[in-house]
Amino acid sequence: MPVFIRILSCAATFALLTLSATAAQPADKERAITLGEGKLTLEAPEKWVRKEPRTRIVEHEFAVEGKKGQDAGRVTVMAAGGSIEDNINRWIGQFKKPDAKTKSRQHVEKRKVAGLEVEIVDLAGTYRDMPGGPRAGGKAIDRENYRMLGAIIPGGPSIGNYFIKFYGPAELVKENEKAFHTMIESLSKK
């Protein structure tokens, strides 16, 4: 084989290897969630689609697609002030006054992950969605038979608290519940 053809063959092979390595990187980058200037990391589920956050206070946002004709779920990740208890109460307040059935489905638990005591919240009922956020001045949209899974990661004074909220139709959230918990369990601290 002439030298020129060997050089072209080697160049083509190198280009293909570089392209395949580059193509693999965005998928990992799309799934990586870094918090607290890289001091905490999580990995989003493969099927969740990274979106431009709707509001500036949200650092990471994902859409969770459901069945055709079903609302997509929304996952937001953000730092926020206030106590953990105040924020849990705010999440509870995003659901209409619960009836006995709905109230019995509210659940809060603590789980040790990466040496941190993470609060896990599970709520269901009629969700009062504020698409533009509470400060946008829009009206709330009542979304019946919705569910929210939340996690509060206490980063301490140097990092702050991070809030992960996944809400959508109850059936969709149930289908993605394991993926949500796997993401929380992927938490690592540097």
Briefly summarize what is shown.
The chain is an alpha+beta fold. It has helices spanning 3-31, 84-93, 100-104, 170-175, 177-185, and strands at residues 32-35, 40-43, 49-51, 60-64, 73-79, 107-113, 116-129, 141-154, 161-169, 188-189.
Report on the architecture of this protein.
By secondary structure, the chain is of the alpha+beta class. The chain contains five helices and ten strands; from the N terminus they run αβββββααββββααβ. It has a seven-stranded antiparallel beta sheet with strand order 3-4-5-9-8-7-6, sandwiched between helices. A three-stranded antiparallel beta sheet has the order 1-2-10. The longest helix is centred in the first third of the chain and has 29 residues. The protein is globular and about 40 Å long. It starts with a helix and ends with a strand.
Cα radius of gyration in angstroms: 21 Å
Distance between the termini: 52 Å
Most strands sheet: 7 strands, antiparallel
Overall morphology: globular
What is the element string, with H for helices and E for strands?
Answer: HEEEEEHHEEEEHHE
Q: Tally the helices.
A: 5
- Pairing-aware structural class of the strands and helices? alpha+beta
Strand order of the largest sheet: 3-4-5-9-8-7-6
Percent range of helical residues: 25-40%
**How would you state the average pLDDT, rounded?**
82
How many beta strands in the DSSP annotation? 10
Q: Which runs of at least 5 residues are low in confidence (pLDDT < 50)?
A: 3-27
Determine the strand fraction and express it as a percent band. Answer: 35-45%
